[in-house]
Amino acid sequence: MSDKFVPLEGYYRQSEDQMRDIVVQLHDQMSLRRSIRMFSSDPVPRDIIERCIQVAGTAPSGANHQPWYFVAISDADTKTKIRRAAEEEEREFYGGRASEEWLDALDPLGTDDHKPFLETAPWLIAVFAQRRGGEQSGQDKKNYYVTESVGLATGMLITALHHAGLGTLTHTPAPMGFLTEICGRPKTEKPFVLMVVGYPAEGCKVPGHALIKKNLGEISTFI
Ligand code: IYR
User: Fold this and answer.
1) What is 47-150+159-201's CATH superfamily?
2) Which mutation among 37, 113, 172, 195 tests ligand 1's pocket best, with the greatest number of atoms within 8 A of CB?
3) How is the chain split into domains, by residue range?
4) Cβ contacts of residue 189 below 8 Å, gap of 6+?
5) What is the pLDDT of residue 55?
6) What pTM does this model have?
7) Nearest residue (CA) to ligand 1, atom 6
8) Which tens digit of pLDDT belongs to each residue from 90-103?
9) Tens digit of pLDDT for each residue in 81-136?
10) Are 115 and 124 spatial neighbours (Cβ–Cβ below 8 Å)?
11) CB of residue 172 inside a 6 A radius of ligand 1
C-alpha cells in the first residue's frame, strides 16, 4: 500500500444495543430542533461558536477542498447593516417578487419582511461557498460538488449548535449578494445561507406547521 495512506483512527465497534441507545437518543434530541425566529439577546461565548464552526469544518467535501467559509458576526453595527439590507430584499420578495404559490407555501410559517432577529440574536454566521480554492488556504484550484459540500457542512453546523442548546434559523434573504460586501468576502464566493444563532427568547413560539414531519416510510425505502 502506498504511503499516501495512514491508519484509520477513532472507530470502534460497540454492541448493537449501545448503537441503538445512541441513535435513539440522537433522534430524540434532533427531533426537537426547530427553526427559531424569536431570539434572546443574551450573549453566547465566542468559543462555543468557534467550536461549532470547527465541527462544520469536519464535513466531507469534493476532493477534500473544504469549499466553505464562515463569517461569524456579533458586532452590532454589522448586524444592523445586514438587517437593513435583508429587509430591503424581503420587502421586494413579499411585495411582488415571490409567486402566489410561494407565498401560499410560506403562509403557515407566518413570515414577513420584518427581521428583527437579525439584530437581536447575539450571532449571525454567514456561510459562503467557494467556487475555487483547494485543500489548503490560498490555493486557486477548481472546487467540486460545492453546493453539496457546503450543504453538508451547514447541516453539521446546525447539529452542533442544536446540541449546544442554541436556537438557529437558516435565513436566506434572496438575493444575498449584500453579504459579500458587508462581510468583506471576495466576489468568487457565493453567500450560501445566513445562520441566525442564539438562545430562544423567553416564551418563544414556533409555527405548528414545523411539527409536521414525514415518517420513516415516507422518506425511505429499504431494498
Ligand atoms: N427569505 C424569506 C422567505 C422565506 C422563504 C422560504 I423557502 C422559507 O422557508 C422561509 C422564508 C424570509 O426569510 O422571510
Assistant:
1) NADH Oxidase (3.40.109.10)
2) 172
3) 47-150+159-201
4) 69, 128, 129, 130, 131, 180
5) 98
6) 0.97
7) 106
8) 999 999 999 999 99
9) 999 999 999 999 999 999 999 999 999 999 999 999 999 999 999 999 999 999 99
10) no
11) yes
